[in-house]
Amino acid sequence: MSVPSERVPPQAKIIRGTGPGKANPIETWRIEAGTAVCEVAPSRGGIVTRFCVDGDEILYMDQATLRDRTQKVRGGIPVLFPIAGALSGDRYEVSGRSFAMRQHGLARQASWAVHKVGGARLVLEFRSTPATQASFPFDFIYRLAIDLEHAGFRSLVLESEFENTGHKPMPLHFGFHPYFLVTDAEKPQTRVSIPARSRVDNHTGERGEWDGVIDYGASIQDLHLSDLFGQTATLDIPGKPRRTLTWDDSYTQIVVWTTALKDFLCIEPWSAPADAFNSGIGLRTLPPGGTHRARFTIAV
User: Fold this and answer.
1) 171 with 219, same domain?
2) Tally of domains in the chain
3) Residues 49 and 187 in one domain
4) How far apart are CA 297 and CA 244, in angstroms?
5) What pLDDT, in 10s, does the model give residues 20-72?
6) Please, are residues 253 and 267 in contact by the beta-carbon 8 Å criterion?
């Protein structure tokens, strides 16, 4: 059914429904604006499951992992918080106490609430609970705005707002994990331009300068890029409009990840390197009552 809103322009609407699958339906919110379509599954980690413009599907999605609530979703745009990447030994310390946390944190496995609906903009909310505090002992609200109302309805804007609602400083590490649809056959002709100087191969441990080369013949590519000198990256896939990614200065790392024989290429903006909770490198701290906002955009 359509969700009424006084702010909905005639060319935009938000629809609430279910899918995919009849046996175990997933609540899905569909945003339509111009020729753009975005679908979101709040209960599956607040994930954007689809972004399409003029019939051009931008994102890869493994529907089986989306339907199976016991699995991590492979595809769409998973939300990474309160960490991006993995921790050494999957643990970190706060005030002398050790806490466990799995790769990429809690947000992608949480059920998010729908906070606001209007126009072609949907705002989700993830709040701390006793369950989250077992591994992340802080009080917080994370609001994520998913917006198609920009650039002639050819952009997907993800605006994050983090609020420390507790009484002690809170470490802040976050990011996104977009799976772009690139078939295995298209990969050799696909070109990626990312404004980074340094590269760490997280699979082999090799370090060096980023030369823009992705070895699609390798079983896995897990490249962590830093020393960014710009805030725009491009993805050129044969026969498709250019995908342009932009971000603000909240994001300091870009991770490129893909595996052989799979039809995706991930280009992930992170706010700090992996294991920042332990190393402190690039880690932000949010004071009590403080907020931080960040913006990431995919345009075609």
Assistant:
1) no
2) 2
3) no
4) 8
5) 656 668 999 999 999 999 999 999 999 999 999 999 999 999 999 999 988 99
6) no
Tokens 């599956």 map to which residue? 44
DSSP letter for each residue of 164-228: E-SSS-EEE--EE--EEE--TTTGGG-EEE--EEEEEETTT--EEE--S---TTSSEEEEEEEEE
pLDDT tens digits, 62-99:
999 999 988 999 999 999 999 999 999 999 999 999 99
Structure tokens belonging to residue 211: 């030369």
Q: How many CB atoms lie within 10 A of CB 54?
A: 11
User: What per-residue confidence (pLDDT) applies to 6?
Assistant: 38
Q: Which of 138, 162, 177 is the last residue of a domain?
A: 177
Q: What is the pLDDT of residues 157-185, one digit of tens each?
A: 999 999 999 999 999 999 999 999 999 99
Q: Which two tokens stand for residue 51?
A: 């972004």
Is 146 in the same domain as 201?
no
d(CA 180, CA 222): 15
Q: What are phi and psi of 63, to 5 degrees?
A: -60, -30
From CA 154, how far away is CA 35, in angstroms rounded? 8
Secondary structure (3-state) at 151: helix
Task: Express each pLDDT in 247-292 by its tens digit.
Answer: 999 999 999 999 999 999 999 999 999 999 999 999 999 999 999 9
Same domain, 103 and 199: no
**CB 142 within 8 Å of CB 125:** yes
pLDDT at 12: 79
CA atoms of 12 and 59, how far apart (whole Å) = 21
The Cα 193–Cα 156 span in angstroms is: 19
SS3 content of the chain, % helix, strand, coil (to 5): 10, 45, 45
Domain range holding 73? 12-177
Q: How far apart are CA 21 and CA 279, in angstroms?
A: 43
Distance CA(170)–CA(137), nearest Å, equals 9
Q: What percent of the chain has pLDDT over 90?
A: 88
